[in-house]
Predict the structure.
Amino acid sequence: MSPYLDLPPLGAARFAAIEDRVAALLHTSCDVIVTQGEALLPLEAAIRGAAHPGSTALNIVTGPYGQTFGGWLRDCGAKVVDLAVPYDTAVTAEQVAEALHAHPGTDFVSLVHAEAATGNTNPVADIAAEVHRHGALLMLDAVASVGAEPLLTDAWGIDLCVIGGQKAMGGPAGVSAVSVSPRAWQRICANPAAPRRSYLSLLDWKERWTDAGRTVLPHAPAQLEMLALEACLERIDAEGLAATIARHRAAAAATRAGARALAPLAPYVPRDRDAAPVATTLRTPPTLHAAELATAALRVDPSVPLQSGGGPLAATLLRVNHHGPAAALDTVLATLSALATALDTDPAPALTDARAAWRTVSA
């Protein structure tokens, strides 16, 4: 019998200890709830708990997930103001401040930290300062950024911070977590429309788990996913969070530098400061279909973390997913080599530039 099918039950104490390690990763003393499902679960739970008829939400759209959040907010009966910017850039704190000034009744703001789908990242600390100056709650989707970028939940004043294990943490997609500030709990508890007796209910977790002392689990945990999450946290601790973040930054810098030498490709996000360290997106010209190029490169090396964009971006965007263990120089070089071969061009200039960028960022 497989050893993974003959494990002792995962008890409440170990479950709580894993939550505490997640809290340490997020730099928060707030309640952390580990949820048994992909990160869309706590993201929707946070919105449905905090948004309600009569509330006004500023929904910042810098990629496809912002569009999803807007739909959930409208389903909750909230008045939604979308602040949308081009997907190849980032929103600024000044734009957020202007939107809040134009809509003084705003009491909830939703924001994605790093958009893995489009390769951009947003200046959360500056945006959070504007949100709290206004007095609104801030929900942050940090699924892609955790482990790849600094994430100072308490210092920045993030009220609801959602993470997943499948990107920079290098772990499973089937487990996720959300930190909940006292202000957010107050808002959720006062919301008569907040889900109850539901998989989307944060209040159920609060009453049956957090407030009850975390001594009896309210349901059977997803044991293998929890153990995988624990292993990810141990791996980050062993490497050091600062080193893990630096490795992702180096991977992004190397990929962007190498891609600039692979004409006719170019970084989809032109400014380095707007580029996410968890994934690099590349723009293809109209004469070169991105999905076809990805297929050709994967024929050269099926192991490289390369895919085309989704939906309307499938024809014009490539994505290099250099996150988790794939945030490594060898992986970046292999991906650039596969792309060069698919483009029928010499990979040497791209590899030289990538190595130089890696050394510069890692120094």
About this structure: The first helix runs from residue 12 to 25. The chain has 13 helices and 13 strands. The longest strand covers residues 56-61. The chain has a mean pLDDT of 96.
